[in-house]
From TrEMBL:
Segments passing through the bilayer: none
Family annotation (InterPro entries): Collagen
Coiled-coil residue windows: none
Bias-annotated ranges (Basic and acidic residues): 261-297, 304-322
Region of interest (Disordered), ranges: 226-351
Superkingdom in the source lineage: Bacteria
Protein name: Collagen triple helix repeat (20 copies)
Species in which this protein is naturally found: Bifidobacterium moukalabense DSM 27321
């Protein structure tokens, strides 16, 4: 195996700065050994750059018909080249390795999208949807995927709209930082109306000293007073309704309000049920005499009264005139004729 030292730097205003990222290595073909009876498969792998942008790897020396494809997946770009690796006991510099002449140089000088990210935590052997990758175009075997935890995986199989990832053993997540020292507590010593009033009263302070000014907390930072922001936090979520309280005491009667305006006349209501007859009222005062009424119908004749007593005999009457002589006629026609001719006599007849 040949050791190869890789050193990748980026341009900077000070000259250069260490690149960050990973480097992937993949053989361009499998090898046959023992007179073609066995196949040797150099394993593809990746290596993470150290903080200074360097890493040293061990590569199998390449042959006349194959080489190593090296893909630099950096934070600023992606670059792929194919190199030949001689058999050497010395540590070789990656920058000094010869480019392989198996393919045109243009095939590895073009930037490609081969480092992809996914908003999910992956495990080796997991199947993922290609549409979940960013970017998701021109996806191929050998592309790398950075998951949400900073772990780097490689696509080992692509079929239709899904792909299978394999573990690379590389993580872009840095090591945990050193535990920080416990901070000093603060002591709110009072309040002031303004920064000027605070500085006039306390030109200097001690670590942990704090004062309130208009709802903001001001701290002494070993050299000056600094506004550490509002002491009041953001408005919290609405709480759950509390339990029902006890009924309160009756309040005092309020003062009478002014009479309201008359309302509009309502619609006529339905007739009510007939009420019970009322008690007889007291006799009213005698009214004035009314006008005479119309003559009434004759009444039913009363019973015959008892015979009255004989009255006293009256005086003798005067002699009367001679009366009319009644003469019997023979029939109605005769009586009519004779009565018309003789008015002094009365003619009558009977049937």
């Amino acid at each position: 195996m040949t050791k190869v030292h890789i050193d990748l730097q980026a341009p900077a205003s000070t000259g250069h700065a260490a690149e960050k990222g990973v480097v992937f290595f993949r053989p361009t073909r499998r090898l046959t050994i023992e007179d073609g009876k066995a196949i040797l498969t150099p394993r593809a792998f990746c290596a993470k750059l150290a903080d200074d942008g360097t890493v040293t790897v061990e590569l199998m020396p390449s042959g006349d018909d194959w080489c190593w494809e090296v893909r630099e997946e950096l934070t600023s770009y992606t670059f792929t080249r194919r190199v030949t690796v001689p058999d050497s006991t010395d540590v070789l510099e990656y920058a000094e390795l010869a480019d392989a002449e198996l393919v045109p140089a243009s095939s590895y000088s073009t930037l490609v999208h081969s480092m992809r990210v996914i908003d999910a935590q992956l495990t080796a052997g997991a199947t993922i949807a290609i549409t979940d990758l960013r970017p998701s175009d021109h996806v191929g075997v050998g592309d790398t995927v950075l998951d949400s935890t900073g772990e780097v995986y490689m696509l080992t199989s692509v079929s239709g709209q899904t792909a299978i990832v394999g573990d690379t053993g590389v993580s872009l997540k840095g090591a945990d930082g050193i535990q920080g020292k416990d901070g000093t507590g603060i002591s709110i010593k009072g309040t002031f109306d303004s920064e000027e009033a605070l500085k006039a009263a306390h030109p200097t302070g001690e670590s942990g000293d704090a004062y309130l000014i208009q709802g903001h907390i001001w701290l002494w930072d070993e050299s000056s007073w600094q506004d550490a922001g509002s002491l009041q936090g953001p408005k919290g979520d609405k709480g759950d309704p509390g339990p029902q309280g006890e009924p309160g005491a009756d309040g005092k009667d309020g003062t009478n309000g002014t009479n309201g305006k008359d309302g509009e006349k309502g619609e006529k209501g339905d007739p009510g049920e007939k009420g019970d007859p009322g008690k007889d009222g007291a006799d009213g005062e005698k009214g004035e005499k009314g006008d005479p009424g119309e003559k009434g119908d004759p009444g039913t004749p009363g019973e015959k009264g008892a015979d009255g007593k004989d009255g006293e005999q009256g005086p003798a009457g005067k002699d009367g005139k001679d009366g009319i002589q009644a003469i019997q006629a023979s029939d109605e026609a005769d009586a009519t004729t004779k009565s018309a001719a003789d008015s002094a006599n009365l003619y009558w007849w009977t049937t």
